[in-house]
Design a protein that fits this description.
The chain is an alpha/beta fold and 184 residues long. 37% of the residues lie in helices and 20% in strands.
Length: 184
C-alpha cells in the first residue's frame, strides 16, 4: 500500500518515472544533479514505489537529531560523518557484503553546492562489494527520475569519475537549483 501511495504522490507532483529499480539485489545508484534536499524526497518516492527494500541514502550526520533521526533511519538514510570518510566506506562495504539486498543511492558531488571534482568513494564501495553502479538522475527541468543506465568501472576511480561526469554533462540535466550543478 505504501509503495502505491509513493508512486501516486510522485505522479501528483508532476514527476515521470523512467524505468524501474536496479535489476539485481545489489547496486549503487549515483544521484545527480544533487542541488537540493528535495532530491532525497523525489528519490525516495521513486524507489519506494516499486516495493521491496528501500534504497539506502547517505545523509550528513548533522540531520540525525531528535525524532528526525528515527524518521530518516526508517526512510533508509545512513548517517555520514564527513570528517572520517574511510571508516564510513569500510562499514558500507562490510554491510553490502553481508546483506542479500543492498542498494545504496548517493550523490557523487558529495554536497548540494557546485563541485567540479566529484567524490570517488562510490567506486571503492562498488569494487570491494562487487556490485554495479548506475547513473541515476532527477531532472527538475523535465521532471523525470530514473535509476539510469549501468556504467562499467575500470580500476581507475579518477578516470571513471571524470568519464561519468562527462556523461552526465551530455545529459543536459537541470537541478532544482540549476547554478549548483557543474560537471567540469
Amino acid at each position: 500500500m505504501w509503495a502505491k501511495f509513493c508512486g501516486f504522490l510522485l505522479r501528483t507532483m508532476g514527476w515521470k518515472s523512467i524505468g524501474g529499480p536496479v535489476p539485481g539485489k545489489k547496486g549503487i545508484i549515483l544521484g545527480a544533479p544533487h542541488t537540493s534536499a528535495w532530491d532525497f524526497v523525489i528519490s525516495y518516492l521513486f524507489y519506494t514505489q516499486f516495493g521491496g527494500k528501500p534504497a539506502r541514502v547517505m545523509v550528513k550526520k548533522e540531520f540525525f537529531i531528535g525524532p528526525l533521526s528515527w524518521i530518516l533511519r526508517k526512510l533508509g538514510a545512513v548517517p555520514v560523518d564527513r570528517s572520517n570518510s574511510t571508516v564510513l566506506i569500510k562499514s558500507l562495504i562490510e554491510e553490502m557484503s553481508k546483506e542479500d539486498e543492498f542498494v545504496l543511492a548517493l550523490a557523487p558531488e558529495g554536497t548540494r553546492k557546485p563541485i567540479k571534482k566529484w567524490k570517488t568513494g562510490y567506486h571503492m564501495i562498488a569494487k570491494k562489494a562487487n556490485c554495479p553502479v548506475y547513473m541515476g538522475y532527477f531532472d527538475w527541468g523535465k521532471k523525470e527520475v530514473s535509476v539510469g543506465k549501468e556504467v562499467e568501472l575500470t580500476d581507475d576511480a579518477k578516470a571513471d569519475t571524470a568519464r561519468i561526469q562527462e556523461l552526465y554533462g551530455k545529459m543536459n540535466l537541470v537541478g532544482k537549483n540549476p547554478k549548483n550543478f557543474v560537471t567540469r
